[in-house]
Amino acid sequence: xxxxxxVVQGRIESEVKGRVGNAEYKAKAKARQAVNNAVSKSGQKSxxxxxxxxxxxxxxxxxxxxxxxxxxxxxxxxxxxxSWEVCPYCxxxxxxxxxxxxxxxxxxxxxxxxxxxxxxxGPMIQGNKTVAIDIEQLKGPKRELVGWVVVMSGNQxxxxxxxxxxxxxxxxxxxxxxxxxxxxxxxxHAVVRFEDGKYxxxxxxxTNGTFVNGKKVTREELVDNDTLRLGRTDLRFKALY
Length: 241
Prior knowledge:
Layout: H1 4-42, H2 64-69, E1 124-126, E2 129-131, H3 135-138, E3 145-151, E4 160-164, E5 166-171, E6 178-179, E7 190-195, E8 198-203, E9 210-212, E10 215-217, E11 219-222, E12 227-230, E13 233-239
Parallel strand pairs: 5-6
Antiparallel strand pairs: 1-2, 3-4, 3-13, 5-7, 7-8, 8-11, 9-10, 9-12, 12-13
């Protein structure tokens, strides 16, 4: 059974639509009658005057005559202003050398082209100046070499790695200072330090531990010719100082 409120609402909407439609129909009929009366009085329907069609050429900045009169640099051919004395693009003096361009030259977005960057290690050109670049400064500060560790066993036997002042991380991960390919090493296994003139090794909570001369340690001072054991790899420590 339909809700009485829906029935009432439907009747109201139908009544409103009917009245709006009748009003629109009467307005249109009245407008047509007014037009017919005007035509019958004048004998013919008046037409609005046609707007003359403007002829457009390829030059987008005004009439073609103005484009042909625009001067251009006699050296690079780019459009210039008549009041300029020097071409801002190539530096050629203007005046008698400026002539109307045959076709406008579009500039790249962002202004005149920028010179390409020089190859690595070469001079950089800034305007009319050449600036030398010191490659050594780009590498950052140098670390002082203070010793080595030499691999005595395992896959890398015979290889030696440099130890620098400060912290040197040892482990299986590729971003360590000393990378050792041993499946028994942790990714961050230990750190060898040189600070205040002393060497020491610190275990980085590795799984299989760090040993110095056969003794398991968490932190131990190192001296020349000490033997480190990380995982199943033996290392001979060599001190420079």
